[in-house]
Write a structure and sequence with these properties.
Structural class of chain A: alpha/beta
Shape of chain A: elongated
Number of helices of chain A: 11
Structural class of chain B: mainly alpha
Order of helices and strands of chain A: EEEEHEEHEHHHEHEHEEHEHEEHEH
Helix content of chain B: over 70%
Number of helices of chain B: 10
Distance between the termini of chain A: 31 Å
Largest sheet of chain B: none
Oligomer: heterodimer
Largest interface: A-B, 33 and 26 residues
Number of strands of chain B: 0
Distance between the termini of chain B: 29 Å
Number of strands of chain A: 15
Number of domains of chain B: 1
Strand order of the largest sheet of chain A: 7-8-9-4-10-11
Chain lengths: ~300, ~250
């Protein structure tokens, strides 16, 4: 098992009676891109703020690089680059001046500025005021800020938020390349399922402050069970007939659904026809990730 | 210590091409323009009247600058605006959450912001004093430039205004809404104009202390100095504690 870079234990944040984050146990391994997925208001940003020490947990602790954020925040933050919610920048300053602020605080080498500008492909606009940048360029500058000083963990909160499709593609490619190129671990939050599916290697699903799933994308897909979908008339009698055969049947609309397991669809069709039912539709269906997500979150749409 | 100075340097660099510079320097410029106009129109009258009251020409210049040219209002207002703008730049850019996600403690960041405000205050007072001396020279005030008088005036103002700075820094740090600290400051300044007439009341209102900073005979400078030091320390500690405990949610 590879080394855990981020590990939270019973991490909880309450605002009065409202529980924003409810005892979550995140585990992010070294070198992976961890997609932290959840609907808006699920508690992703609050969790990220707790990981960065911006918000104090009500209960529990977060350990990053094996150190507690409560006890050693400065040691941790030296090694963590972050974008929280939206890119932070001073519009009155140029890209270089913005990066110089980060460099000074971190005490990094001057060469770092050119290095990170090169990585995010902003070198030719480095002396342009940031207020004149497009949103995509601002997002790239924020990633450059997060990378400056050879950080080992990047925490990116909704890094593609508000971007056009070309911008999303560009940032996605950049994030995907980071672990291979720089050896960093990435924790990326998103409310877009396809985004996480295309970028992440592991995923954590949060809804209403609770972590409902955590594992690899493959493990998530494995949660998907194939069902046989039947449209047979009369439906109520067909349902009773199938149940009498010991099958667990669910009726949704005018269709019946049976977990496939080792069931033979052709044999099932034959049995229904032989019994005198009119079978107008029979198919096998596999849930996509969105269906699985909805099932896990109890219907909380993204 | 070097880390703190690096942080302070970044706080000053953040103000490059920002509105803080015109906000800080417009106040002395306008005041000195008013003072210039005042002396241009009625120099002899002012000096004759002051001489009858036993004031020297340079003391009269300070008196006219402070009261007639409204510096006792303009200075607290400029401090209020500078403090609000320093934090507004952070709130508007997401700078607080970004800086605090770097290895920077909340207390250190608050102190750095406070020092930045104090630097702007000192620059403002220095510029004002230089222009005040220039106005005196332009109108050929009798006697040489009274350095001691000017120095006392600068120090008194700095101490009195630092109390306002501490209060306004605290108010500006607690809310992302820039209107609130500005409104609190302006209401405080205008009401203090009336309340400052009574020294017992003026003692407990930081905005009123600037009125008592003229180093002239009969002026209660102690009120300004003691009040300035007390409120500067009190609101600095209160602001530090408040900011250190604050969750960064905006």
């Amino acid at each position: 098992m590879s080394e855990l870079v981020v590990e939270t234990q019973d991490l909880t944040k309450k605002y009065g009676n409202f529980t924003a984050v409810d005892g979550i146990d995140l585990q992010v391994r070294k070198g992976e891109i961890y997609g932290f997925l959840g609907p808006n208001g699920a508690g992703k940003s609050t969790t990220i703020r707790m990981l960065l020490g911006l918000v104090k947990p009500t209960r529990g602790d977060a350990r990053i690089f094996g150190l507690s954020i409560r006890q050693s925040p400065m040691e941790i933050l030296k090694r963590v680059g972050a974008i929280v919610e939206s890119p932070s920048y001073y519009g009155n300053l140029t890209a270089v001046e913005n990066l110089e602020i980060t460099r000074r605080i971190l005490g990094a080498d001057k060469k770092e500025i050119d290095r990170v500008l090169e990585i995010v492909n902003l070198s030719q606009w480095k002396n342009k005021k940031v207020k004149n940048f497009s949103l995509g360029m601002k997002q790239r500058l924020a990633i450059a800020q997060a990378l400056l000083g050879n950080r080992e963990l990047l925490i990116l909160d909704e890094p593609t938020n508000g971007l056009d499709p070309a911008g999303i593609h560009e940032i996605r490619q950049l994030i995907k390349n980071l672990p291979g190129m720089l050896g960093v671990t990435v924790l990326m939050s998103s409310h877009i399922l396809s985004e996480v599916e295309l970028t992440a290697t592991s995923v954590g699903i949060i809804s209403r402050g609770r972590l409902l799933f955590q594992g690899t994308l493959e493990e998530l897909r494995r949660k998907s069970e194939t069902e046989i979908c039947i449209e047979a008339h009369p439906q109520d009698k067909a349902l009773k007939f199938l149940e009498s055969k010991g099958l667990k049947v669910k009726a949704r609309g005018n269709r019946l659904f049976i977990k496939k397991n080792s069931l033979d669809a052709a044999a099932l069709n034959r049995a229904l026809v032989m019994e005198g039912f009119d079978v107008t539709h029979l198919s096998t269906e596999r849930k996509n990730l969105e269906d699985i997500f909805l099932e896990i979150t109890g219907g909380d749409a993204l | 210590m070097r880390k703190f100075f690096d942080l302070l340097w970044t706080d000053i660099i953040k103000q490059k091409r920002s509105l803080v510079w015109p906000a800080a320097f417009l106040a002395p410029l306008i005041t000195e323009a008013l003072l210039f106009l005042d002396f241009y129109l009625r120099r002899d009258y002012i000096l004759n009247r002051a001489a009858k009251e036993g004031l020297s020409a340079w003391q009269t210049l300070v008196l006219e600058h402070h009261l007639t040219a409204l510096w006792f209002i303009t200075l607290p207002m400029a401090v209020t605006v500078v403090c609000a703008l320093l934090y507004h730049a952070e709130h508007a850019s997401g700078g607080l959450r970004y800086t605090l996600s770097l290895p920077v403690g909340k207390g250190r960041l608050y102190l750095s912001k406070w020092c930045t405000g104090a630097i702007f205050l000192c620059l403002m007072l220095l510029l004002d004093a230089l222009m005040l001396a220039a106005v005196g020279k332009i109108f050929r005030l009798p006697g040489g430039l009274d350095y001691q008088l000017l120095m006392s005036y600068i120090v008194n103002q700095a101490v009195a205004a630092i109390g306002i700075l501490s209060l306004q820094m605290w108010l500006s740090s607690v809310t992302p809404n820039v209107i609130l600290p500005l409104a609190a400051g302006f209401i405080g300044i205008t009401t203090s104009l009336f309340l400052a007439q009574d020294q017992n009341i003026a003692r407990i209102i930081p905005y009123a202390h600037v009125l008592y900073t003229m180093p002239l005979p009969g002026e209660n400078n102690r009120l300004a100095l003691e009040g300035g030091i007390f409120f500067a320390a009190f609101f600095l500690v209160a602001g530090l504690l408040c900011f250190s405990k604050k969750d960064v949610t905006e």
